[in-house]
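queue> holo job accepted (zinc ion)
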Amino acid sequence: GDCVMDYADILIKNAIIITMDKNKRVIDDGAIAIVDDKIVAVDKTSRVEQKYKSEKVICGKGRIVLPGFINTHDHLFQTLLRSMGDDMNLNDWWPNTVGPITPYLTKKDMYYAALTGCIELIRSGVTANLDYQYANPRPLIAEGVLEAFLQIGIRGVLGRGYSDVDMFDFGLPDDIIESTEQALSDTETLIKRWHGKANGRIKIWLAPGAPFANSDENLAKTREFANKYGIGITMHIQEARAEVDTWKEHFGTTPVQYYAKKVPELFGPDFISVHSVWLEPEDIKIFAKTGVTVSHNTNSNMYLSSGVAPVPEMLKQGIPVSLGVDGAASNNSKDFFEMLKNTVLMHKVHTLNPTILTSVDVLEMATMGGARSLMMEKEIGSLEVGKKADLSIFDYTMANMVPLNRPMSQIVYCGKAANIETVIIDGRIIMENRVIKTVNEEEVLRKTQKITEDIHERAGRGEYRRELFFK
Ligand SMILES: [Zn+2]
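queue> job finished
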């Protein structure tokens, strides 16, 4: 009967809940009950309390519960390169950051870089991360990232990166170029060992580098492989204007329009196009027609002066857009709140139109947009019964949030990573009262500092790094 109580593993009560469900429902004095990895109730506290009790009750007074943010583009190894490429042209950026370091990367470097990057993400409310791992100087080095995902408890997708050509001699180092066979066989091993591990929390995807770095045959095989294993594909597409201009000189059209003819099977709803700053109207139409989703990397696009992606037009045409922090060599922070605010402001000033993009649009990109990009919209991205318990608890009693008038808007315009107090991923408390529970944060950060010094010495970049310290 009605008075029988069910037990929840975790009960969060008396909070404001931003659900991001299809009605964008905000519940005042709301509660969430979690059993195992799932949400079993989201409603007014009085109603949830009639049904559920728990030994683990989190008081939500003064708190907002948010769906976990979903980061759809990252290069975690670049955490070791923070600020090494500041204030440079793209031509100088590569040879001063990624280029000289990648050949020396070890699995241990990957592990600590990934842990530090994930700690920063979790601290800003991110619960799922797609790491685009293109630095593979030795086989299976990506397992350093996967071990970090496993250990820290984030929902992690590892996009195994690869390139088989340097079409226009952009100077890709030899260790980045590998045969399609090598890349796919490495990926196959990663799939066998990792795909679906930890209650489905860890996944493997394919990540061909960019149009100028992957041949048509390579991309056709990529699609075949993705279909065989039912996994997604992510690729940098039309990031910089110069790259698109060069492509057009050679092929007479943009990469997107070229592929629509030459490798038409490449695009689909399981394809995340990253950056996509320089899209022509016809490119946008192709994305809309094929169901491609876009990862918009606001801060990276501003940092490298790549340009402003036509996001409002993409949204108008129904293309799901998600957000990516990109690697720390081109952002350099992984604070998701910084990106929420910069995204909405960048499009307003670019179009001289303050109504072009709203705070709610940006929250949608950070949550359900990300879920669609990862093909997980039925499992994550909103706080609804039956979905995974991936969420953060945000303290709004701090000076940057008081007084609270409009929760959804203030999350975007006033929120900071420092407001995030507790993070739950797959029903497990990963951070509680600002303490990461799954790794020894202090030790991880100390080791990351040390391995950064070591790798710069090994790569013959120690002196350069020491000089930069005082500049
Ligand atoms: Zn990237």
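queue> Residues 73, 75, 132, 236, 274, 326 surround zinc ion (CB under 6 Å).
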